[in-house]
Design goal:
Helix content: 25-40%
Structural class: alpha/beta
Bound molecules: threonylcarbamoyladenylate, magnesium ion
Length: 324
């Protein structure tokens, strides 16, 4: 199979491919998703196969609006209304009791379903053209950094999916924040593109993912977001020393450190200003993929402050380094 490159004018064709049981990668505001008809068990099975995804890791269902998302659930608490009104369309995924229409395959057998309304014009156009929910994990091969461009999608999935809808680079750069609304208080399952602080201003204090319980978000137990090249995450203040010890290493640094470190043998990429977590989130995955392609034997990454989107950036970096 050759993967077709589609543009914004091809949304009707992309919807037709989905209707026929095919897979289409498409841009969301966070990262590119690997889409299939969300109510079709066979399409879900094809998504797992194309990604090489473990069968126990459920998919997010994307809907055009909150009402369509609600129909995929069995129970819709007041908190869901509040969060949907405040943050949808946007980088927030809600985990709720699953309605019977949702195939087992999508939910990986769980009694819950993850739903979100994405804030990208092409994603919304595709959902409206299809008139059904779209199941979409990030459009990377399992374990790799998520794709933030159509080129990244092709790098991982060429020949494994029918088409990719190119909408240019994504704006947020890290995946959606995932919140479990089936427990009191709601539990933060994944740090992401909606900052915890912003979310808690509406949801109240959240229980954090390291609650000592069995893994509630199955995806978070795997090594993830990882380049093929070994990656070392420098502890705060240690990046210069680590780079001096590994002169051939590729470096991913804040703009301030790029200047401080000066010329070096290995390739250097910028994460953005130290105080700009949104810029860091946007740059992160593309930079990791680029440094992976550079052929350097090691990638050294600077730690960034853990506030706002910096929490998601550090979460992804720890997992890329093989730590949980
Ligand atoms: O921004 C995003 O969320 C992107 C775009 C494409 O929407 N999608 C994405 O999907 O990141 P994926 O499959 O790469 O990550 C989904 C996460 C996984 O950690 C998965 O385990 C969790 O959501 N998840 C899905 N359904 C769940 C459920 N019923 N209960 C708990 N966690 C769930
Ligand atoms: Mg993913």
């Amino acid at each position: 199979m050759k993967t077709q490159r589609l543009g914004p004018a091809d949304v009707p064709l992309a919807a037709a491919i989905l209707r026929g049981g095919g897979l289409v990668a498409f841009p969301t505001e966070t990262v590119y998703g690997l889409g299939g008809d969300g109510l079709d068990a066979a399409a879900a099975r094809r998504i797992f196969l194309a990604k090489g995804r473990p069968a126990d890791n459920p998919l997010i269902l994307h809907a055009a609006d909150a009402l369509s998302a609600r129909r995929l659930t069995r129970d819709w608490p007041k908190a869901a209304d509040r969060l949907a009104a405040a943050f949808w369309p946007g980088p927030l995924t809600l985990v709720l009791p699953r309605a019977a229409v949702v195939p087992d395959e999508v939910a990986a057998g769980l009694d819950t379903v993850a739903v979100r309304v994405p804030a990208h014009p092409l994603a919304l156009a595709l959902l409206l053209a299809l008139g059904r929910p779209v199941a979409a994990p990030s459009a990377n091969r399992s374990g790799r950094p998520s794709p933030t461009t159509a080129g990244d999608v092709v790098e991982d999935l060429e020949g494994r999916i029918e088409a990719v809808l190119d909408g240019g680079p994504t704006g947020v750069g890290v995946e959606s924040t995932v919140v479990d609304l089936t427990v009191r208080p709601p539990r933060l399952l994944r740090q992401g593109g909606l900052a915890q602080e912003t979310l808690e201003a509406v949801a109240g204090p959240l229980a954090d993912p390291s609650g000592g319980e069995p893994v509630r978000s199955p995806g978070m137990k795997y090594r993830h977001y990882a380049p093929r090249t070994p990656l070392l995450l420098a502890a705060d203040g240690q990046v210069a020393a680590l780079l001096a010890a590994h002169p051939e290493a590729a470096a991913l640094l804040t703009d301030e450190s790029v200047l401080a470190v000066g010329r070096r043998a290995g390739p250097v990429r910028r994460l953005g200003p130290r105080g700009d977590a949104a810029a860091q989130a946007r740059a992160l995955f593309a930079a990791l993929r680029e440094l992976d392609r550079s052929g350097a034997p090691l990638i050294v990454v600077e730690s960034v402050p853990e506030a706002g989107l910096g929490r998601a950036v550090m979460d992804r970096l720890r997992r890329a380094a093989g730590k949980r």
